Amino acid sequence: MAEFLTDIETIRARARQEIEKGPVTDAYGADVGRVIQVLNEALATEIVCTLRYKRHYYTATGLYSEPVAAEFLEHAREEQLHADRLAQRIVQLGGEPDFNPDTLTKRSHAQYDASADLIEMIKEDLVAERVAIASYTEIAHWLGQGDPTTRRVFEDLLAQEEEHADDLRGLLERLPRASGGRG
């Protein structure tokens, strides 16, 4: 059986020091300020994605729009859950989630889109998912063992973003190319 690297009395004494830091202990191996900044950028990304999917849900029209709009709405709900999870982690680390609408698109990794064409909506959403996948993969690698809890949050979000990208790719493959117009 493996032994503790530090005796339990020392761990208990350290736990009492700087108690106001909550879960951030001496064992935390990342730059908490930088992690909070990265979490806030991801939060902005998820909020922008939620807004983009909601817009696409409400403005999707055409012969094939009903099942596509349903997928947009499902993704919007899931992106909102991602945002909530990121905000919770920011607070756990002692930070403040940044919901400032004036800076959301500047901080977001993904872009907002106002396409009117159904096929273009799907393509833009797929691009945004691919951006999130690339960003979250890089963030998870960067966090490594320095903050395994935040890394797991990003790994969980990454898995769902990959599902979203797969869903969108499937929609593109099933829709006739001529169906993308409005009306």
Automatic annotation (TrEMBL):
Coiled-coil residues: none
Gene Ontology biological-process annotations: intracellular iron ion homeostasis
Pfam (any one): Ferritin
The Ferritin-like diiron domain, residue ranges: 29-179
Binding site for Fe cation: 46, 82, 129, 161, 164
Signal peptide positions (record): none
GO-annotated molecular function: ferric iron binding; ferroxidase activity; heme binding
Recorded GO CC terms: cytosol
Domain of life: Bacteria
Bilayer-spanning residue ranges: none
Cofactor section: heme b
InterPro entries with a match to the protein in the record: Dps-like (IPR014490), Ferritin-like (IPR012347), Ferritin-like_diiron (IPR009040), Ferritin-like_SF (IPR009078), Ferritin_DPS_dom (IPR008331)
Keywords in alphabetical order: Iron, Iron storage, Metal-binding
Protein name: Bacterioferritin
Taxonomic classification: Bacteria, Bacillati, Actinomycetota, Actinomycetes, Kitasatosporales
